[in-house]
Every structure is written in C-alpha cells, then in structure tokens.
C-alpha cells in the first residue's frame, strides 16, 4: 500500500513515515495543501491521510477540492480537531474515516487497511485471487492455505498485483507502490522479481500474465 500523508507537523510526519514504513506501508509526505494537490494529481496513492490544520489552506476546504479532482481514493482525516461538528463537516466534505490526535499507530494501520479493502470491494480481512490469498492482519501470503515464503521485495510486488488483481500494472506503477525512492530500484528489476514470482506460483492455478503495452496482471488460471 502507498499512502499520501498531508501533515505539517514535522515531528509527527517524520515519526509516521518511519513507523508506517516498518509496517510495510509506503508514505509520500507533504506538509501543505499546494503540494498535496500536485501529488494527488499523479493518482499513485491507495489512501490519503489528511491533517486539517495546514499552513496554506484549511484542510476541510482542501478536502472539497480534492474530492472534485479524485472521487475514488479513500481519505482518512487525521486531526486534533476531534469534536463532533468537525467530524460531521469532514464527512460531508468527502472523508471516508476520521481519527483524532493523539492516536494509536496500530489503530491507524488497521483503519488504513480497512479503507483499502473497502475501496477494492473486499469484505474480509484478506485479499484473494484464485487459491492465492494475503492475510492483511498477519501480512502473510498463502496458496490453498499453505504459507508462501517470499523475500520482502517479492512480497511487495505480489501484494501490489494482488491488490489490483485482473488489472494491468506497468513496471512504473508497481515501482511507485513498492519503493519510497524510485532511485532505489530500476524498472527492469521488476522483470526479475516477476520472473521469480512466476516460478513460485507455478502450478498454483494463479499466474502473472504480461499484457503487451500495459504491464503485468495477476489472474486466476
């Protein structure tokens, strides 16, 4: 999962980036509304976490503008303004969830995954494609119930493909969701990881297909 964090408090932003990265969630962090709108326009995030107290624009107003640009990406409002009127206003403006500060990191993690599942139309705490499943709670892949042991990079790429099962994902789109700095890995390295994943999935009635000109798609065989 890759999220956009819109938070102007430097200490909190730094801590959240580090903590969520350790939890397997990639974070793009901006500290003002202008940068947030530029990032949202690229459409590479699974969830947006929005603080309301921004220096250049009220977060509630930014939320309305955001919804005009992007009606689908889930938005979790994260703010110290934890009172009913502010919550009601946020939900009317297009928020999908609301979490007051201070908060527990584990609760934020659970809420982020719940928003992602809801956005993908999944009801259970698992992502599935044929016999392949990913348990969001324990962050583990399995094939027909048997654990599938993967390297961190293999797991990250397969998780992206599973989250977008049946949908072609280009190498660039995959990279944007598995590394925080695209300089860390070359797009061609995705080919190597996909090749290894195909070997691991061989005979499992689920496959990674190449769609010419579009990218890779995970499909039940």
Automatic annotation (TrEMBL):
What PANTHER family does the database record attribute to this sequence?
REGULATOR OF RPOS, TRANSCRIPTIONAL REGULATORY PROTEIN TCTD
- Identify the residues that the record assigns to the OmpR/PhoB-type domain, covering every copy: 124-220
What keywords sit in the KW lines?
DNA-binding, Phosphoprotein, Transcription, Transcription regulation
Protein's UniProt name: Response regulator
Q: Which residues bind DNA?
A: 124-220
Instruction: Write down the SUPFAM superfamilies for this protein, in alphabetical order.
Output: CheY-like (SSF52172)
- Show the InterPro entries listed in the entry: CheY-like_superfamily, OmpR/PhoB-type_DNA-bd, Sig_transdc_resp-reg_receiver, WalR-like, WH-like_DNA-bd_sf
* Domain Response regulatory per the UniProt entry, residue ranges: 2-116
Please list the residues that carry the modification 4-aspartylphosphate.
Answer: 51
Pfam families recorded for this chain? Response_reg, Trans_reg_C
């Amino acid at each position: 999962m890759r999220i956009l964090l819109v938070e102007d408090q430097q200490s909190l932003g730094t801590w959240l980036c580090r903590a969520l990265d350790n939890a397997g969630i990639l974070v793009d962090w901006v500290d003002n509304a202008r940068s947030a709108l530029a990032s949202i326009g690229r459409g590479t995030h699974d969830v947006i976490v929005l603080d309301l107290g921004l220096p250049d624009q009220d977060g509630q107003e930014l939320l309305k503008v955001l919804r005009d640009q992007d009606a689908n990406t889930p938005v979790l409002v994260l703010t110290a303004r934890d009172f009913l009127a502010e919550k009601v206003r946020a939900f009317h403006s297009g928020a999908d969830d609301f979490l007051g500060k201070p908060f527990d990191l584990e609760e934020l993690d659970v809420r982020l995954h719940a928003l992602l599942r809801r956005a993908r139309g999944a009801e259970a705490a698992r992502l599935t494609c044929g016999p392949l499943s990913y348990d969001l709670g324990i962050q583990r892949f399995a094939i027909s119930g048997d654990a599938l042991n993967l390297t961190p990079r293999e797991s990250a790429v397969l998780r992206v493909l599973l989250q977008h099962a049946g949908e072609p994902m280009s190498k660039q789109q995959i990279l944007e969701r598995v590394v925080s700095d695209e300089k860390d890995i070359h797009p061609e390295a995705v080919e190597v990881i996909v090749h290894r994943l195909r070997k691991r999935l061989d005979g499992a009635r689920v496959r990674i297909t190449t769609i010419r000109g579009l990218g890779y798609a995970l499909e039940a065989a």
